[in-house]
Amino acid sequence: MSLSQGLLNLVDSSGTIPKLEQTIFSTGIPTAQGMISHLESRYRPVGSAIFQELDRRFQELILNSCDSVMEYANKLRQVRAELLEMDKIYQIGEPHFVSEFLCGLGPDYEVFPTAFNQNHNILPIRDPNNRNVILKEAVTFETAISAASQEEDRQRGTTARIAYRAMVAQGTPCCGHCGRKRHDKSTCGKLHPELRRDRGKAGYERRQRKMQSREKEREKTTDELESARYATPAYLQPDQARLALWQNDFQGHLGLIGSSFGPSGLQASLQARALERIHVFDSGASSHIFC
């Protein structure tokens, strides 16, 4: 089915298409903005029935009928805008709007409105001497949404932790005889005493193996320390080891002198010279580096 050009009024008698500003769908409205305004006024919701329906939706809207706090807030905004679109006298004030939002949160947020009202004021605080002066502004709807969203995140985190703990507790086996966890009737020590003796023996053997392993590690560490001490130069060894080496060196000098010359005045003189060759320097440090 095709529409005639005269009905559409898109082509004039000369065969040219007129401008959109001149005529639109033969309604006599010269501009597109005028057409939009005409459609809005023609199809704008009016009447008591529509008002009562919107008011019912606004009163019955609660958080439990939505998936999140943000969805609940957006639906409240939508109903508020539709009421305002009907007539300006249906405008819902900000304090009433915030109060309706808090009341619709439901029993899961029973404590939240009380805490929120302690930190925020629903109505503005005015100067008692001059009511036109506002000392503190009233809380906004956006602030209420932000606080409720934070409370929602906190409750979801708590619920997730509780569910995880319940899942872990449910997955832990429980004995039907003694009621204790982490074993069942087949491995219960009270129901099967022989298993308890076997576990005691196994524990004793395990402790013995640990003690033997620790003893081997201790012996290995001692051997490594001894080998490291003998492999270390004398001037890098501990003080007691250096003193022992100096004592052996001194006694060796005396032995060589005594066996070669025998007891005489010359031996005493040589012993004194040998003592002069041995220098002992105590700096108080545990180790030194020589260049």
Overall pLDDT:
73
| Global Rg | 49 Å
Distance between the first and last residues' Cα: 111 Å
In total, the number of strands is 2
Tally of DSSP helical segments: 10
Assembly state: single chain
Tell me the overall shape. Answer: elongated
Sheet bearing the most strands, described?
A: 2 strands, antiparallel
DSSP helix fraction: 55-70%
Identify the strand order in the major beta sheet: 1-2
**Residue runs with pLDDT of under 50 for 5 or more positions:** 1-12, 20-24, 256-263
Structural class: mainly alpha
Order of helices and strands: HHHHHHEEHHHH
Overview of the structural elements:
The structure is a single chain. The chain has helices spanning 5-8, 32-42, 48-60, 69-86, 94-103, 112-119, 141-171, 193-231, 239-261, 265-277, and strands at 125-126, 134-136. Helix 3 (48-60) packs antiparallel against helix 4 (69-86). It contains ten helices and two strands; from the N terminus they run H-H-H-H-H-H-E-E-H-H-H-H. The protein is an all-alpha fold and 291 residues long. A hairpin with a 7-residue loop joins strand 1 (125-126) and strand 2 (134-136). It is elongated, with a radius of gyration of 49 Å. The N and C termini lie far apart (111 Å). Among the domains are: 5-42, no CATH class; 48-160, no CATH class. Strands 1-2 form a two-stranded antiparallel sheet. The longest helix has 39 residues, at 193-231. The model is unreliable at 1-12, 20-24 and 256-263 (pLDDT under 50).
